[in-house]
Amino acid sequence: MGVVSWWFNGGDSDAVILLLGDSSKSLVPGQFTYYFGVGPLGLLAGFQSDYVGKTFGLDQKESENIVNSQQGDVLVQLDQGIKFPAPSNHTKGKLYANVEDPSGAAVVVKGGGYINYLTEKKLPMLSEIGLSAKFLKLEGNAMSALDYVADGSVAICYIAKGSGRVKVVGSEGKPALR
């Protein structure tokens, strides 16, 4: 299985974190598999800043900042003045969720796979950062139906392991990626 997490030390003293986990079923068995959104190893580092700006509705300066400002890979020091949202009363009780748990799946197809959604209902802190997640696990020789985003929302897709084909089509019915 797997876990997605980010950690932030908002205090004035050092934090020590010990992570223990089973990595026998990782992408590389025996090693933790890391995925980064930004920074030198991040997904967005592979795109030009003007594309990131158009995708996320940012001006040129903001998009360049997102693509180029984070120099650290795993650990980063935040600039002075950057504040993360403090946990509110409704988020303090639950700061984690397992999106891979098939027992709570929204859609289950026997022999095909399952889809889980992680929204603010399962993880209340998501309402403060404006994110949600969709986890799709396909069995061999299965496929997922079309996804359609009516409001122009942004989606980042990360394929952890396996093989297959992804096709993106624009609003005129022509391939958006070649």
TrEMBL record:
Pfam families from the UniProt entry: Cupin_1 (PF00190)
Matches recorded under Gene3D superfamilies: Jelly Rolls
Residues annotated as domain Cupin type-1: 101-173
Family matches, as InterPro entries: Cupin_1, RmlC-like_jellyroll, RmlC_Cupin_sf, Seed_Storage-Functional
Annotated PANTHER family: OS03G0336100 PROTEIN-RELATED, OS09G0552500 PROTEIN
Name of the protein this chain belongs to: RmlC-like cupin domain superfamily, rmlC-like jelly roll protein
Organism of derivation: Helianthus annuus
Lineage, uppermost ranks: Eukaryota, Viridiplantae, Streptophyta, Embryophyta, Tracheophyta
